[in-house]
Each structure stands twice: as structure tokens, then as C-alpha cells.
Amino acid sequence: MLFYSCQNIKINQKTTKQVKQVKQVKEKQKTKPNKLQKNTFEKLNEKNAVPFLFDYSKNNKENKVKLKTEYGDIEILLYKNTNIHRANFIFLVKNKYFDGTIFHRVVPNFIIQGGNSDNPKIMMKRKKIGRYLLPPDTRKGNKHHRGVISMPSSEIKNPHKLASPFEFFIVQQDPGAYHLDNDYTAFGIVTKGMDVVDRINNEPTDNRETPHKNIYINAVIID
Predict the structure, then answer these.
(1) What is the pLDDT of residues 32-87, one digit of tens each?
(2) Sign for the pseudo-dihedral over CA of 101, 102, 103, 104
(3) Three-state SS for 197?
(4) Highest CATH level, class, for 43-221
(5) What separation in angstroms does the CA of 101 have from each of 80, 110, 173?
(6) In whole angstroms, what is the distance from residue 86 CA to residue 90 CA?
(7) Nearest-CA neighbor of 96 among 57, 124, 70, 133?
(8) Which residues 6+ apart lie within 8 Å of 196 measured at CB?
(9) Angstrom distance (rounded) from CA 173 to CA 200
């Protein structure tokens, strides 16, 4: 009886320990961050954006992106010598910012511009990411050839041409728009899909250069 009782106590202690371990595991699972929480970051602003993107670039070396549209895909190679702008674009793609945005500005025989939208969901994405501008990087000598992707300056009073990080434009003009070279940062080039760029550039627009039809964008990283 004494032996049985001691053995039973040991079994009960072991069972209690196992139950406690299972409970701890369940509690950890409850507090384990989901995918959205795992990708959280400090909201970006004028002070922390560039240091954040500099660090981000070290662990995120990707430089190829595909923009999917109803007219076809546009594949882009991002330049390594404009690292902050490359990192910013990759950061936004990975955080699904561009998905659901549109080509909101089309200037015939000049550019198509995307990344903006009045959609409340897109505005909420911008709010969560933060409010910041990027300094231009025109010293690398990248030219605005046909097919180059560049970053427009902010619409606010902006004598230093600080770039609006959520938008981009693609040069459609042939052979290029070289008058932009000293003011805007060319940070990549279209490697496939210039026929799609041309088709979007032919879309009818209103007097604000906004296409009558919403041309939606989805962006993914490619190898």
C-alpha cells in the first residue's frame, strides 16, 4: 500500500507537471504574434525613415519587382546604387502597400504615375506606415531613359525635391525624359512589359491627367 501510494504520488506529480507544461504552451501560442504583428515596425517619420531603410537594406537585398495589371505585367530591376530608394520600394512591396493602388496620373508621350489612391484602405495603409519623405539621390548619374522608374517629389512646398515615398513614375517618352535627371531619383528600369506601359499611357484622361478608368496594381517580389 505504501509503495502504491508513493508511486501514485509520483504519477500525479508527473501528470500535474505535464498539464502545467501544456498550459504554458497554450499561453505562449495565444501571445505568439501573427504574421501582421511579426512584420510590425516603428511608424516611420522624417527622423527615423532613412536610418530604418539603411538597416532594412542589409537584410532585404531583393531588387526585382513585378507590377501586375489587367493589361499585363511590368517587370522592374531596381538599381543597387540608389539603395535607400530600392529598400523603400521593396519595403512597401513586402508590406502590400501597392496592392489596390492605381496608376492615377497619365501624361501622353511622357510618363505613367502610380502608387496613390483615394481609397480609404490605401490611406489607412499610409497612416500605419508613417509620414516621411526621402532625400533625392541624383549624384549616381542615373538617367531618365525610356522605361526608367523614378520617384516624384512631394506636392507640399518642397524646394529640395524631397521624394514622395509612396509614389513612382515610369518614363514612357522615347528616347527619355532627360530634363528630369537633376531633380528626381531614377532608381530602376523596366526589363519586361514596356508594351503594357505604352498601353496604359494611351488611356484617355480628364483635365487633371487622371485616367477615366482605374488601372489597379498588385506588386510582388520576383527572382
Answers:
(1) 333 333 446 899 999 999 999 999 999 999 999 999 999 999 999 999 999 999 99
(2) negative
(3) helix
(4) mainly beta
(5) 25, 21, 23
(6) 6
(7) 124
(8) 69, 71, 72, 73, 74
(9) 13
The 10 Å CB-count burial string (b at 16+, else e) for 180-215 is bbeebbbbbbbeebbebbeebbebeeeeeeebeeeb
The one-character DSSP state at 143 is: -
For the chain, give every domain's residue range: 2-32, 43-221
Q: 113 near 122, Cβ under 8 Å?
A: no
Set of cell numbers at residue 191 = 526589363
Separation between Cα atoms, residue 151 and residue 155, nearest integer Å: 12
Using CA atoms, how far apart are residues 3 and 6, in angstroms rounded to an integer? 5
Q: Among 214, 213, 200, 219, which Cα is nearest to 99's?
A: 219
Q: Are 179 and 173 in contact (CB under 8 A)?
A: no
The rounded distance, in Å, linking the Cα atoms of 95 and 97 is 6
In 71-212, where does DSSP find H-type helix? 83-94, 120-129, 194-201
Which helix H or strand E contains 55, and what residues bound it? helix 49-59
Residue 4: pLDDT band (50, 70, 90) is very low
DSSP for residue 176:
B
